[in-house]
Amino acid sequence: MAYLGLLAGLALLIFLALRGVNILFASLLCGLVVALTNGLPVHEAMSQHYASGPLGTFSFAGRFFLLFIAGAVFGRVMGESKAATSIALAMVERLGAHRALWITVLASAALTYGGVVVFVVIFAMYPLGLSLLKQADIPKRLFCAALALGAGTFTLTALPGTPSIQNVIPSVGLGTDLFAAPILGLVGGGIMFGLGMMYLERQRKIAQANGEGFEPGPLDKVENIVASDDMPKWQIAIIPLVTVIATILLPRLLLSAGLAPSEGMIADGLVFASQQSIFWPSLALFFGSVLAYVLFPTLHGRALNVFGEGTNDAVMPLLNTAAVIGFGGIVVQTIGFQDFSSMMLNSGLPPKLSAFASISVVSAITGSASGGLQIFMATMADSYLAMGIPADQLHRIMAMASGGFDSLPHCGAVIAMLTVTQLTHKQAYKDVGVVTVVIPVVATLSVMGLSVFI
């Protein structure tokens, strides 16, 4: 009954998400199904594990509140000032409108490999992406897939040295460094990027042949992409975006290069900034918004309204994402989940394949790669090390595996992206699923095969 309840709750959540049912209601309903079928006290499951536990809805919302607000405000400012449009025009003139998907993937990858949180990338790239899409007449669904490929796959789990939480968690849990199993990581990252771009370009050509083009959402404010007197030059328009990225990355770069002072207020400030994966990027985004106000005259006199509209933009993505995390908070407390952990460890499968299956299922249930990794490292990692898997290979394979089935339709980041872009699962998830689930799984299995010879 416990296993059936878990499967039923997860299947129902995916079904409701694909049908476009409000994800807040869907997560509550499915969480209740899981709690009842696994014998959890309903009041405890809903008021503690769902709401305020370590993986609770409001625990997540509280932790990421500033980040979502700052990201949405920055995105609104860049759009309203026409700075994003100016940057898009410059890119199209130099690279060609047909390369809009390449621009999106590479820009997103650069941000996330530099340590920028995925949610920040979604907000920062969206106004720029709208302008690129309109100019290139590419469907928004493919922008979602390009954004997901660049921001949510190879730069988070595969490439050696990435400061992403998906790379940090196994490093802490296994005592490895961020460059663990570099050959496996480079091969896996190359497979994800190569297959992903092949798929996106194929879909772009199919859409073009079918006459499918760009259609703005009801809340999108996209001007006709032509140069105008009130549009800032791209050299000026890019300053807030570069400032945000530089502000986020500079402390980490200075410390890693050994260029920071060893003591004093500046040294303490740099260490503090490099350790703040949420607050410091939020501060950088707010600073970028203020800088944009100073630089762009079109915002003068209405900055408070624009900032307020940006704040409203953040509310639903934050709540929708947090609700799915709360569902995972109930799941990890169930007897069915605990029994599954024991079953996988004693399955008799080859150790690496067993570990792959374990992290895949855990990440799928929680809808979170980082959540899946945290649970795996706390409950299963030592057992797989004892089976003879080298720590560096376990680090890299598990990091990559966590980034596969975590991106099912109930994934928090997927829901946030679709909410921000005003698309439904029915419209966009097929393409997102191919680049974030199918291709990463293929890459991980390929790397597992390669690891036998290394």
Number of helices: 22
Given as residue ranges, the uncertain stretches (5+ residues, pLDDT < 50) are none
**Gyration radius from CA atoms, angstroms:** 22 Å
Distance between the termini: 43 Å
Number of strands: 0
Given helix and strand content, the structural type is: mainly alpha
- Mean pLDDT rating: 84
What is the H/E order? HHHHHHHHHHHHHHHHHHHHHH
User: Quick one: overall form?
Assistant: globular
The main sheet comes to: none
Please state roughly what percent of the residues sit in beta strands, choosing from under 5%, 5-15%, 15-25%, 25-35%, 35-45% or over 45%: under 5%
Helical amount among residues, as a percent range?
Answer: over 70%
Indicate how many domains the architecture comprises. 2
Draw up the topology in text:
Blueprint: H1 2-18, H2 23-37, H3 42-49, H4 57-80, H5 83-95, H6 100-113, H7 118-136, H8 140-152, H9 154-157, H10 165-174, H11 182-209, H12 234-256, H13 265-275, H14 279-295, H15 303-331, H16 335-345, H17 351-366, H18 369-379, H19 381-386, H20 391-402, H21 412-421, H22 425-451
Describe the structure.
The structure is a single chain. The protein is 74% helix and 0% strand. The chain is mainly α. It folds into two domains: 2-57 and 319-451, no CATH class; 63-168 and 183-314, no CATH class. It is globular and about 70 Å long. The model has no long low-confidence stretch (mean pLDDT 84).
Descriptive key words:
single chain, mainly alpha, globular
